[in-house]
Amino acid sequence: MGKTTLAFLALAIFAATCVDAGCRHPTFPEEFLWSFKGRIPKMNCVKVIEPSDPKWKNGDNFLCHVREHGRICNTGIRWSYRGAIKNMRCSRVNEPSEPKGYHWGDNFLCVPKNSPYHFKFYNYRPKMTRNCVQMTEPSDPNTWKDNFLCLKDL
């Protein structure tokens, strides 16, 4: 690499750092919403899907958070229905009441390792839900009425 390329690369890294430094992460759960009816307009959303489950394969379930350009940081939240994502901190999302063939045992919600979010998924109603977002899918008969994504008590 030449000096010009290195200088440009250094400038790009510096600019990205400066942009991120002026933002804040959305507050959980206040600035997060769950949708079983598709993306929520004007919010950043992560699609939650399980292709083996007929009620979850259509891609209309989303975990969303507020979006203010330049003010809200990119959360880096990612969903995987094929196991934990390498180099990320992941929380298993499993509904054991689903039929085994629906493969919920390998589903994870992941965040970057330096994320302020430490999530825990409950497939039952936890005692305290003040730090939680309820994840529902009304069309699914297999107990998706009592599931919550919560902040883990550290």
Structural summary, described in words:
It is a single chain. This protein is an alpha+beta fold. The protein has one domain (32-151). The chain is built from 1 helix and 9 strands; from the N terminus they run αβββββββββ. The chain has one helix spanning 3-21, and strands spanning 32-35, 43-47, 62-66, 78-80, 88-92, 108-112, 119-122, 132-135, 147-151. A 3-stranded antiparallel beta sheet has the order 1-3-2, with no helix packed on it. Strands 4-6-5 form a 3-stranded antiparallel beta sheet, with no helix packed on it. A 3-stranded antiparallel beta sheet has the order 7-9-8, with no helix packed on it. The radius of gyration is 18 Å and the shape is globular. The N and C termini lie far apart (45 Å). The relative contact order is 0.18. The model is unreliable at 2-19 (pLDDT under 50). Keywords: Signal. It comes from Clytia hemisphaerica. This is Cnidarian restricted protein. Residues 1-21 form the signal peptide.
The number of distinct helices, counting runs of at least 4 residues, comes to 1
Instruction: Give Rg in angstroms.
Output: 18 Å
Secondary structure class reads alpha+beta
**Between the first and last Cα atoms, what is the distance in angstroms?**
45 Å
Please indicate the percent range of residues in DSSP E strands (runs of 2 or more).
25-35%
Strand order of the largest sheet: 1-3-2
Total tally of structural domains? 1
Report the helical percentage.
10-25%
Poorly predicted runs are 2-19
Number of strands: 9
Order of helices and strands: HEEEEEEEEE
Mean pLDDT metric? 87
Shape: globular
Organism: Clytia hemisphaerica
Protein name: Cnidarian restricted protein
Keywords: Signal
Signal peptide: 1-21
